[in-house]
Amino acid sequence: MPIAVCAAALASILADPVPASWVAAVEQVESGGRNVTGDKGAAKGVLQWHAKAWADCSRVRAAAGLPTWSYASAGDPARARAYASTWLTYLRARVSQEIGRPAMACETWLAWNLGMTGFRRYRFQAWHPDLPAARYDAAHRVQALTK
Asked: How many CB atoms sit inside 10 A of residue 76's CB?
């Protein structure tokens, strides 16, 4: 299903991007800073981009007037980080709308890792009792790395 680029999320991409520390924290949790292929070949690069997420982010970047690149660029750390800044900012805005307050880095990472639909299953709660332990630990590691 195509993503809807909501006006608030689009505005935040240009006016209020996530801090660089959020991108660095996600990179550390996703790959330890290594340019690798993961998820049984489905994810690549320092930020472990999946093709569908890259395509969704490309649509958001195009709507914001930002440069876009093909999925082959997911292995380029600089381009992967630029995309991550956009996508994390977009996800932060979407999660913030859902929870009625500014989303924290750990909540934004859960939307990154699970997708919005997946995170919705946990009611957008980083402390949900049914959240798998590995995801809980990774989300809270992201939060700790942003301080």
From this structure: 15
DSSP 127: T
pLDDT along the chain (147 residues), means of 10: 59 88 98 89 93 96 95 97 97 95 98 97 96 97 96
| CB-based contact 145:19 (threshold 8 Å) | no
Residues 6+ apart with CB under 8 A from 41: none
80: buried, middle or exposed (CB in 10 Å: 19+, 13-18, 0-12)?
A: buried
Which residue has tokens 């395509």?
A: 55
Spatial distance between the Cα atoms of 131 and 142, rounded to a whole number of angstroms: 16
Residue range 7-145, CATH number: 1.10.530.10
* Sheet strands (E) in the chain: 36-38, 43-45, 49-50
Question: pTM above the 0.90 mark?
Answer: yes
Neighbours of 71 (CB within 10 A): 16
| Domain segments of the chain as ranges | 7-145
CA 75 to each of CA 52, 133, 140: distance values in angstroms, whole numbers, following the listed order: 15, 29, 26
Report the pLDDT value the prediction gives residue 28, as an integer from 0 to 100.
Answer: 98
Q: How far is CA 123 from the centre of its chain?
A: 17
